[in-house]
Amino acid sequence: TQMFDTMDEKYDAVVERVREVLPHCASVHRGAGHKSQVCTREYESARNTVHRFCGADSDDVVVFTRNTTDALNLLASCVPGDTVVLDIEHHANLLPWRNRRVVRSADSVEETLARIDGELASRPAALLAVTGASNVTGEVLPLDRLADLAHRHGARILVDGAQLVPHRAVDITTAGIDYLAFSGHKLYAPFGAGVLVGRRDWLDVSEPYLAGGGATRHVSVLGDSVDIDWAPSPARHEAGTPNLLGAVAIAAACD
Fold first, then answer.
1. Is residue 77 packed enough to be buried (19+ CB in 10 Å), middle (13-18) or exposed (0-12)?
2. pLDDT at position 5, please?
3. How many Cβ atoms are within 10 Å of 177's Cβ, its own excluded?
């Protein structure tokens, strides 16, 4: 990761990287021409950069999204059970979850952890979704302890990293985090991209909440019926024309 004296320097480096790609801008994954092949390589290179930046496991998947909100809604469509959240969450990490159970935060971290522990012990939950750094209180919670707590009760953990990732390194493998979501714009990366990084099994068995071209391996139309063979992740959840410049910009901000 490069070190910058000012945010202006970081932004300038991102813009310069985007300028390098602009002359080749063409369809990603959908063309045999030279420019399309160059852009496909750039797009997948950006995915690999984000994967390294997050300290993801070798089998973890990086899905490019529009922003943190989009990433969290995507995962919410895949969770096979209840989700436990705190009342201090960013709206993007409060509103999308189906069957959400809200835990009130306490005056101390230890008491907040105890309340989460009690909620997870009370009945099964599939996911604990927590902020990395609250935009309500500014509090930074101990993610490794939260991960241990979730896993002890058979749940997974999602971290909304929108406020945290621009300021602190987050290694999801070391911390035991199952999913991480964040946006490019808070890393000084323009062009509207975000990411969901994490375990692929839930993603690979859920129908995409955004269906369309590029998300399938095969489609057959027989009479009134449509038979769909969805692609594995990440393609399964990246329907439509990919946001190449957004992906390049967020990767440049991570590099």
1. middle
2. 47
3. 29
- What is the per-residue pLDDT for 147? 98
> Looking at residue 6, what is its pLDDT?
52
Sequence-ordered list of residues with C-beta below 8 angstroms from that of 71, at least 6 positions apart, any chain: 63, 65, 181, 182, 194, 195, 196
User: When comparing pLDDT for 85 and 3, which is higher?
Assistant: 85
Question: Omega of the bond prior to 234 within 30 degrees of 0, cis?
Answer: yes
Q: Which two tokens stand for residue 192?
A: 């509207």
Q: Say if residue 32's pLDDT is above 90.
A: no
Q: At a CB cut-off of 8 Å and minimum separation 6, what does 12 contact?
A: none
- As a whole number, mean pLDDT of residues 54-76 equals 97
What span, in angstroms and rounded, lies between the C-alpha atoms of 246 and 206?
Answer: 25
Q: Which two tokens stand for residue 25?
A: 């801008």
Structure token pair of residue 171: 């290694």
DSSP summary character for residue 187: G
Q: Residue written as tokens 């990395």?
A: 132
Structure tokens at 38: 């160059």
> d(Cα 255, Cα 251) in Å, to the nearest integer?
6
For 124-153, what is the mean pLDDT? Answer: 93
CB within 8 Å of 42: residues ≥ 6 apart: 21, 24, 244, 247, 248
* Stretch among 6-15, 201-210, 231-240 having the lowest mean pLDDT: 6-15
Which two structure tokens, joined as six digits, stand for 165? Answer: 């990732």
> DSSP H helical segments within the chain, as ranges?
7-21, 34-53, 68-76, 109-122, 143-152, 172-175, 201-205, 244-254
